[in-house]
Structure formats: structure tokens, C-alpha cells
Amino acid sequence: MGVGVCYILRRRSKNPPNVEEFLRNHMSLSPKRYNYFDVRKMTNSFKEKLGQGGYGSVFKGQLLDGRLVAVKVLDKTNKGDGEEFVNEIASISKTCHVNIVALLGFCIEGPKKALIYEFMPNGSLEKFIYIDKLSKTVFHDHHQLGWDTLFKIAVGVARGLEYLHRGCCTRIVHFDIKPHNILLDQDFNPKISDFGMSKLCLKKESTMSTMGTRGTIGYIAPELVLRTFGKVSHKSDVYSYGMMVLEMVGQRRNVDAGADNTSEIYFPNWIYKRLEQLEELGLCGATTEDEKELSRKMTIVGLWCIQVDPLHRPSMNKVLDMLEGRIEDLEIPPMPTFSSSVPNPPMPTFSSSVSPLHQETFSTISIS
């Protein structure tokens, strides 16, 4: 059933990882392999660029059967030395879920590497949730999502993460959940993408070893930065998910140096105080009672997820219980704080208590 290895490459190796050897040994896990000529042809010589990132560029393409695809062409100078490429194939090839983007193929010819995904016409969630205070419009597409849609996205991402953590044959920890990595189909159904930082591990293991901090500033769980905050586990994804949900709620980045009041600079603190004082949240676009209930539910869930100690965060199946349950059953969590003087907060009482993590860890198997 479970695969007893973690597919993560040695970061400090003097030699580049033998990607070809990995692919030969795991071809049964891999999607279709294309040559670079095929990649050029399907993208019409990289004519339509969809996006740019630290890994390289994404282009729109079309397969011979007419299906539209998104082709991620990795930069030849990509500092990961093949690690992210192999992680992506090893992780996503094990998944099959409506809220996980499908990897349809890949290409590797010397330094040329590309990954071919199903095309998501509405792009990333990032384009739709950050409001420009001056113009009151979304930064990119001038299209504001309604609360029903935001809530549907939050539930869909939670289902995808719950599947990665519990539903597929090997537990997968994503390590880079953020709005940029949540893609939206034509009906704004979300799919988790970009598994370059992910890690596979035995299902029976609850904690894991990592080499270096993994993730994006603003969404990285505290234990990934400083181990005294707790063990690294699937709860690290829960933290990132909570930060993302709070950005969806506030329709702004959680840290806003340009906030009107210094008390609003860190959004989780600001929104927590309003919850604690039973004040109206005053969130953009939440006018009806149903919308206010959805926004309040997402806020409470987000704050539970960003508890500093991973033991006090709910698992993703508990998150789904909270999102799909009654607002009256949710308790306001303790304020997330990094102060060591604050006593340990109580466990949430929205359902059965979150199971404590096993304390054992295991060594990472490197591919070289």
C-alpha cells in the first residue's frame, strides 16, 4: 500500500540528481513523456505566455486530441537542480482528485524540462482576492468573487488537502499552499497545483525530517522556521491554508504595511480582536446575513488553522467539519501568538479533539 520512501533530493549534493535514473525506476508512476519538439509544437513555439515564476514560465498549449494544457517550462538555471521537477512528478502522479490539478505529461531533454498540466481557464486564486483600496477593484482582473464562491473555494481546497494527507496511497505534504498555487476552472472550482516543494511519506508517520525551510514567506508554518515551535508534519499545510483563508476573508495580504492604522497591519490580529469583542467584521461585500455567516465561519476556521503550536491546529478533516457544520458550534480560538509566556491554549471543542501527533521521525531517503 504505502510507499516507504520520501521523494526529496539532496539539496547540498555536489552533483545534480540523476533524474533519468529516477524516471526509469518509477516510470509506472509517471505520466506520458514528450520530447522538446512536441512541447514547442503544442505551445505554437511558446506563443501565449500565461505566467512567470521563479521556476520559469507557463505557456498555453493544445494536445493533438484538442485538449487545452498549461505547459510549465523550467528555467535552465533553476536552482533546484531537478529537485522540484522530480518532486512534482513523484507527488502528483500518485493523485487523482477533483481538487488536485492533473499532470498530463512531462519533457526532459538535457537541461530542457517541462511539465504539462490540464488547463485552468480562470488562472490562480491570487488574481481575484486582493482589493485595491483606492479603486475598490481587484488588482488583476477587476472581478470580485462573491462570498458563496469564496466559501466554495475554501471548502474545495480543504478537500484537496484532506485527500493529500489521508486519502491517497501515500501521505503528501504540499509545503507551499498559497493563493498563487490554487488554480480555478471555468466554474471557479479550485485545484491545488505546484508540488515542487512537496514531500511524500509513510501514512503511519505523523512527523518528518526536512532539509531547509520549505514554502513561501507569509504562509510558512512557524515550526518550519524554528523547530522549538513543534514538529514538522501535515499540520504545516494546515497553517498555510489558514493564512490563505484569512487573505480570502480580508481580500488583502495578511501583512499590509500600507494599512491606514498600525493596528490593521497584521490582519489576523485585527480580525481576531473584532471577533473577540463581538463586533461586526465589516468585511468587503458581506452584506446579507448568509454572507456574514460565511465570512465569520471562514475567519474562525482560519484562526484555528494558524495556531502557533501544530498540536493545536485542526487536521484537514476537522477543518471540513467546521466549514460544513453550524456556525453556532464554532468557538473562537485563542489568539495566535509567538510569545512563549502565553499558556498553552485549549483544544478546539467543535468536534472530537484533534489527535496528538506521534513523536517519532524518520530519515529522508535521498536520490542521487
Automatic annotation (TrEMBL):
Family annotation (InterPro entries): Kinase-like_dom_sf (IPR011009), LRK10/LRL21-25-like (IPR045874), Prot_kinase_dom (IPR000719), Protein_kinase_ATP_BS (IPR017441), Ser/Thr_kinase_AS (IPR008271)
Main localization category: membrane
Keywords of the record: ATP-binding, Glycoprotein, Kinase, Membrane, Nucleotide-binding, Serine/threonine-protein kinase, Signal, Transferase, Transmembrane, Transmembrane helix
SMART domains, per the entry: S_TKc
Single GO cellular component term: membrane
Cell compartment(s), UniProt: Membrane
Ranges for domain Protein kinase: 44-338
Chain positions recorded as ATP binding sites: 72
One Pfam family this sequence matches: Pkinase
PANTHER family on file: RUST RESISTANCE KINASE LR10-RELATED
Family: Belongs to the protein kinase superfamily.
Protein's recorded name: Protein kinase domain-containing protein
Organism: Stephania japonica
